[in-house]
Each structure stands twice: as structure tokens, then as C-alpha cells.
């Protein structure tokens, strides 16, 4: 064979191989990666009492979702596997997932049709809903009373959309995190703070002078988010969740974190 022809064939083969390699990298299988590394990088909250918050004493994040992520990791990958926690916010969690900085998000994340366009969701693991926090002296009793009132929400959550739907005349003020929103409520910058019932219950646990009113005005359960196309990872998370529900682990964690919280009915959360 002519040398030039041989060289041409060699270049084509190398070029084709390099293209194939790129495609394979882009189609990274997250479950196979975590199975090999024995580590799952979880995106979690660090500002959400009961679910995920930073302990001043230990310097570590703790909460219901932290314990659940640890249990899921060990169920999926074995007792010696590691759950690594990366702090996220309502605004950053999807981007961190898309950038492959994390493998999954377990961060009080409501399952919505809009988010399903961007990520895969596990089956629901917590029956959340939007609720209203006000000062004890407030006359606000339900969602309709928020019309013509200043309502505080956190950016990137589903609260603003829910308020627009049920109280379209409310004036919405958005903050970067739950701590800022609650501080604004205490400072009198708004009449009410709206977000998920469990998150508000966690804030109330450590505060006085405030109350929840009107019950949940939406049904918006939480799911674990995984990158689009990572169906194997999603399937294994669902299988692990089912196992933890059946063996009683899930209910033990619910009782541990929500059993003594005023306004929380753990019978509505537990799996039976």
C-alpha cells in the first residue's frame, strides 16, 4: 500500500476514535461512576433547619435529608460507601447538577413540571406544601388575606408562583435564602413569609413570636433530582428509597426530626 494512503487511513482512524471517546465522555453514566468510587456527591441545604443546616457546635451539616442521603448511599453502594455533601441554594442546585459538580440533589426540592424539563426526579420522599408564617399579633389567617400585603419569599423556590395563583394582588419581595427572608419578617419589611411547611416549622423550632396560619395551601412533594438521562441512577435511588421505607428506616428518621415539632403531624409524613 502506498505510504500516503496508509497515512490517510491512520489519520481517519485516530480522528474517529477521538470523536467516539468524546461522545462516551458526554454520556457519562453517573451510577457507574459512584459505584466505582463508592461515593455520592449530594447537593444539600445548609440553611434549612430540620432538613439541612450547619451545626455551630460541630461545623457539620445535619438534618433529615442528611440522614436520608447517608442511608441511601449505604443502601445503594454498601456500608463502607461515603456520602459527600455540597452546599446548594435554591438558585444554584440545578446548575451544580448540570455542571456535574454533584451527582444528585436532596435539598427540599419541589417536583414541578418546569423542573422536570431540566432534571430527572425520584419518586416523592416528603409530602411538602406551601404555608404561611406571620407574627403572633398578625390578623392574617389564610392565603387570601395576603392580597395587598407584602409577602417574603426565597428566590428559586415555588413560593412566588403559588402566591401569584392564590393571592394575585400580593406584593412579593424576594431574598437569597431563608435566613434573610425571616430576618426581613422580624424587621417588619413584610407581612408574611411563605415557603414550604417543613422549612417554616424548622425556623419556628428556634424562634418565638411567630406562627403558621391557614394550613398548607398547595400540595408540592419533594423529590431527589438527578441529571437528565441518568435513568440508572434514578432507578437505584428509587429502589433504595423503597427499601428504606419498608424496613422502617424512613419512619425512624421522620420521628427523629419531626416528632416533637409543633404544627407537624408525623402521621401524615410516615410511610405505612
TrEMBL record:
Coiled-coil annotated residue ranges, if any: none
Gene3D superfamilies in UniProt = Periplasmic binding protein-like II
Q: Which GO terms describe its biological process?
A: amino acid transport
| Descriptive protein name | Glutamine ABC transporter substrate-binding protein
The domain of life is: Bacteria
Per UniProt, which keywords does this protein have? Signal, Transport
What Pfam families does this protein map onto? SBP_bac_3
Amino acid at each position: 500500500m502506498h505510504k500516503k494512503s496508509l497515512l490517510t487511513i491512520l489519520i481517519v482512524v485516530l480522528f474517529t476514535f477521538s470523536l467516539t471517546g468524546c461522545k462516551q465522555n458526554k454520556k457519562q453514566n453517573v451510577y457507574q461512576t459512584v459505584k466505582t468510587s463508592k461515593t455520592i456527591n449530594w447537593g444539600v441545604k445548609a440553611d434549612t433547619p430540620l432538613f439541612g443546616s450547619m451545626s455551630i457546635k460541630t461545623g457539620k451539616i445535619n438534618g433529615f435529608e442528611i440522614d436520608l442521603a447517608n442511608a441511601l448511599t449505604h443502601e445503594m453502594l454498601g456500608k463502607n460507601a461515603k456520602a459527600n455533601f455540597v452546599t446548594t441554594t435554591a438558585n444554584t442546585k440545578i446548575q451544580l447538577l448540570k455542571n456535574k459538580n454533584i451527582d444528585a440533589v436532596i435539598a427540599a426540592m419541589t417536583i414541578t413540571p418546569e423542573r422536570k424539563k431540566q432534571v430527572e426526579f425520584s419518586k416523592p420522599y416528603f409530602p411538602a406544601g406551601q404555608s404561611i408564617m406571620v407574627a403572633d399579633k398578625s390578623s392574617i389567617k389564610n392565603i387570601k388575606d395576603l392580597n395587598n400585603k407584602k409577602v417574603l419569599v426565597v428566590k428559586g423556590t415555588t413560593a412566588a408562583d403559588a402566591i401569584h395563583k392564590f393571592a394575585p394582588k400580593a406584593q412579593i419581595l424576594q431574598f437569597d435564602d431563608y435566613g434573610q427572608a425571616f430576618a426581613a419578617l422580624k424587621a417588619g419589611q413584610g407581612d408574611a413569609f411563605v415557603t414550604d411547611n417543613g422549612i417554616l416549622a424548622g425556623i419556628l423550632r428556634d424562634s418565638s413570636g411567630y406562627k403558621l396560619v391557614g394550613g398548607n395551601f398547595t400540595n408540592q412533594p419533594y423529590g431527589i433530582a438527578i441529571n437528565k438521562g441518568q435513568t440508572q441512577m434514578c432507578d437505584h435511588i428509587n429502589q433504595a428509597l423503597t427499601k428504606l421505607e419498608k424496613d422502617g428506616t424512613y419512619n425512624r428518621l421522620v420521628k427523629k426530626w419531626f416528632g416533637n415539632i409543633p404544627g407537624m403531624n408525623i402521621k401524615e409524613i410516615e410511610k405505612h
